[in-house]
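User: Sequence in, structure out. Go.
Assistant: Echoing your sequence, followed by the structure tokens.
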Amino acid sequence: MARRIDTYLAQLIDEDKLAFYEAVRDFGDSEIAPHLLQWERDHQLVPDSCLKAMGDMGLFGLPIAEEYGGQGGDHTDLCLMGLALGYHSQSVAITPGAAISLGAKPVQLCGTDEQKRAHLPALAKGERMFVFGLSEPGRGSDAANPEVTAVKSGDRWVINGEKCWSTNARWASHVIVHALTAPDAPNGKRSTCFIVPMDQKGVFYQEMQGKKVWEQSSTGQIMFDNVEVGSDAILGRENDGFKVMVTTLNGGRLFIAALALSSLAFALDKCRVYAEERIQFDNKPIGRFQRVQDVIVDMDIALERGLTWLMHCCKLYNADQLSRESAAKVKVDCSRTTSELIMLAMEICGGVSCFDEFGLIRHHNDLFVTRVGEGSNFALKDLIVRPLRK
């Protein structure tokens, strides 16, 4: 069955990008879809064989410059990958997605020449993976004021504290630690980001247990016990960690919007087909009822609108013209709208929606992360409203 999303993308992107999207889409159909249900029932994270296959395709190096061994693509390519892989599973899509937008991107955007040469080639091949240590047990939306501290001792820094909800922690070679370094400085100038090897003395990781969303994605707690690093580990400038964080999350919010739209694309196709196959009342399909048609039409409208908006934001991001407010808006709207519509889609399909093999319940659960990931929607609305109050 042709996907409705493909129709819209063909109108929004050029032939080369469409060909890339189709290649990743076909990879998802052949290498992810046939195995996904078993991975879920076995409570298995994305297998190493799948990670290697994605690395062989060059997915981990999408936006990394060719001089560092990457594909030389842009943020549009990253979001197209999210749309293609997320159609089957957000938790599979977020694995290379976070490795790029939260791992390689900060190095690419804020790293020194030495840091880029040291890390980007291995990151581009998928041989190395960075995790972004931002969220903490006591800091969620107030991420600008971390509880993890880095105290200067001579020519060294000593890091202590704990990070959580760290995507890809299991596979990470390094963690980018957002730490408090100047508690008395003005807001936005209190923190610094450090690149810390995961095998550094004093770094401890454990997988977070009991998670019922993004179940194939690694989500870890990372503890730091008197971890010592030099000033060459600083990513960006000292006390400019907030700037690194904001720069990173702006692009990450577009990828989260792409994941939400990938779930919407799946739900639309599933629902419109089921509505014509489900025979009820006078031996006719339920797709003839206007209430059913209304939901399907609303999903179709939301998908076209969201894709058009997302591709526009990607162009602005590529031109370094995307505002924080615009990135927040598209993320809030796509995640919220899809969450509401998928509930209606499940009502149309009835009890079968509850079964894992049908697929809708997977997307229903994973959509929660798009509402709170990369900044909760409630917190982002506070950011969005600021220009309106001036």
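User: And one key feature?
Assistant: The chain has a mean pLDDT of 95.
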